[in-house]
Amino acid sequence: MPVKTDLDKDQLKYVPVEGHWDEALLPSGLPRRHWRKLVVEIRRMGFRHLSRRWQSGQQLIQSEGVTYNVGNLTEGSEYSWPMDPIPLVIDAKEWASIERAVIQRATLFNAILSDLYGEQRLLHQRLLPSALVFANSHFLRPCVGITPRGGVHLYTYAMDIARSPAGDWWVIADRTQAPSGMGYTLQNRLVSARTLPGVFDQYQIRQLARFYDMKRASLLALAGDQRANPSVVLLSPGPHNETYFEHSFLAGQWGFALVEGADLTVLDRCVYLRTLNGLQRVDVILRRLDDSFCDPLELRGDSLLGIPGLVQAVRSGSVAIDNALGSGLVETSAHMAFLPGLCRQLLGEELHMPSVATWWCGQEEPRRYVQEHLKELVIKPAFPRFGQHPEFPESMSAAACEGLVRRIETQPDEFVAQERVALSTVPARTETGIVPRHAVLRVYAAWDGHSFVVLPGGLTRVSTLDSSLVVSMHLGGGSKDTWVLSGSAAEAAAARRRPTDQIPIQPGAGDLPSRVGDNLFWLGRYAERVEARVRFVRALWPALSSEEDFGRAVSLETAIRLLAGFAYLSEETSAASLGEQRWSVQRTLTEMVYDPSQTSSLRWNLKELRRVAVHLKERLSSDTWRVLQQLESHFSAFAPANADQRYLGGLDLLDNVVLTLSAFSGLLMENTTRGFGWRFLEIGRRMERALQTSELLRSSLSSAAAEVEPCLQILLQIGDSSIT
After folding, report:
1. What range defines the domain where residue 398 resides?
2. Does a structural domain hold residue 174?
3. pLDDT tens digit sequence for 365-376
4. Are residues 519 and 416 part of one domain?
């Protein structure tokens, strides 16, 4: 048993925030019944042991390449996925009520979408203001009258819920367009189960795998009985998207092709995938792209991400899309003010879980209430656009509040007010100890062909500070796994049994999109180019030593001749003093390793190698990706500012890099199926090796006719050909 010090005990002291419901502790300070095992386990292991466990969890996140792209970062500088090791635990009885509410809400929104894109009775009966529909940019007029396959608009639904100080759950947001986070939810579970294996096995936790199997089967079933082997693709905006990791993760898990808009084309009202074998018919599209960007022909004309003619293909019924185009219409928080009446009208029942109190300023009485209670509310845009954010009048100056009131009076339809939610708190690990953080839970539901099925868990997100009620991944928030307890041991055992006929089949060689073939070609080229740079610099490095290193002998004169042949040094360098020659060679070699602005440097080419590999993540094995992450970690630290320090550490760095590169190249070439992808990879490698070798021979031997022997020896070392 770990020995706990006084500091350990202090770091384990957890004090909830007054005035907020705490998920783990009762007001008396005792743990809630369904948290007891977890609290006892954390106290038993101590803070230091928990931190050591979490270091292994963070290493797993990094080795798996789990990232979240923040919009203001450049490609290749993603954040590692922020996760907390302490999960959110939910009792079985409480989860049953949440599950019931999610199913009802998904059914309700599907009925609303069917009406608004169909007969529009809700507008004629004035149950929903027309201004909330026709002024919404997500209302896609070309989609009116289109009946999606099976009559279902909403195949995937998510809602964000939070707990009030009284312990009741409220819905604070609905996600109906392309709900994100399902991939991160599964990844959190994989990390959590390995970080806290003991307590994970003690609990009867409902498993997630069956939901993902069901979701994959439902996507295949969307194709109908038209073809024996239906084709499903996952449409992504590309690697610049913030959640691109989960796009590639889910595509790999389900065995679907990950595509971008340029990979697809519409011909004769059918969607086709451009592959190396020609055009391949697509039956189902799982989109992770906002609906207005999906078709530049009929929707948003400036979109470079969509497929021209997609709406016409959907209208003809030749392709199904999850979710249907136009489903983002009901994401606006303004609809929450009208949901109770819509639920009674469409479903004949009351809402099982209330929404946070909402007032749409387009109506006179609610607008008057908002103006009178402005400081107590949060003001949001009714139709959010890029760059718009909620406003908090409580923290605004008097002049700013007056300006906000004038804007509301000028364009009342554009504003929504909501009650400020006192979010519940959960324990979270920090470097200083376990502290409370405010939490929001995102719960998912999917259509299985007959009804909605809820994922037994979800993506729990936490705030950065206990004083912040804003929970956002964009603002540096974190995430947690969500443990939903089973009602009985039999139920837990049944949930653990996974069907054996749901094994995903990876796309075959004929399914290889042309873009993927191009990326594999460049992956081969950059892998070979990086290895060539490493061996070139590594072979010349000993020339800076005062005594030649036996086995890697290279004179300063030979190094200058080679560098001058590649135009890295001027021809006049050989006539300079010995000190100037050493300084010039040292500066040039260290820049070839560390300088990210030089296209010939190792660091620049490694960045390009990773950029290409990101496009292929779902097609690379986990071991290959781990080696690539290790290769990148060699250069993750800042280069030493002192030139001598860079020189002293350079050779060790190059020795480590060449070993990692050998593992990366071996995994790429030996573990890749000998299909079209492998051929493009091999073509790229061999072409780059031929170019590098010919350039090396031209630059070294053309100016060394009198002294060929020293150059030949170093050329064999650079080409790793000494053994032959």
Report:
1. 358-420
2. no
3. 999 999 999 999
4. no
